[in-house]
Structures are given as structure tokens and as C-alpha cells.
User: What shape does this take?
Amino acid sequence: MLRRLTLAFFLVLLALACAGFVRLNGAATQVDLLFAVLPATVGQALIVAFLAGWLAGVGGSLRWVARLARERRELARALRLAEGEIRTLRAVAPAHAR
Assistant: This one.
């Protein structure tokens, strides 16, 4: 509960900081995309660029975590197979090995 309240508090604080940043950087500019030209303030353009970078970082991190999870599943499967093979070898061990 406290964790969610702290997260909500920091998100509200971040939203207020962004609003203040946009208010202080109100100079008009144009963002030229490949297919359109968008009017925006400097603050808005910088916040959109920050969010786009943040989302790209989160996407890259999720891809890395997915690769680690897949590798973990493969290793767990290999471990189960190796343990099964050991059990089988112990069950059919020759008489002189007992």
C-alpha cells in the first residue's frame, strides 16, 4: 500500500514538474517529421523526446529480460533431462559398481 502511494506521489510530482517545464519553455517551434510538420513549444518537444527515449529503453530492457527468461527455461529443461539420465544410469548400474 505504501509502495503504491509513494509511486502515485512521485508520478504526480513528475507531472507537475513536466507542466512547469512546459510553462517555462513556451517558445514556439516546429517539429519536422518525415510525413508532417507539427507546431509545439520547446518544452513539449523535449518532454516527448524524453518519453520516446524512456519507452525505447524500457522496450530494450524487456527484450533483454525475455531473452534471460528463455535461457533460464532452456537450462531448467536441460537440468531435468540430465537428472533423469542420472537416475536411469543408477538404476541399471552393473553389479560391481554397487
User: Anything to note?
Assistant: The helical segments are 2-24, 42-91. The first helix runs from residue 2 to 24. The beta strands are 28-32, 37-41.
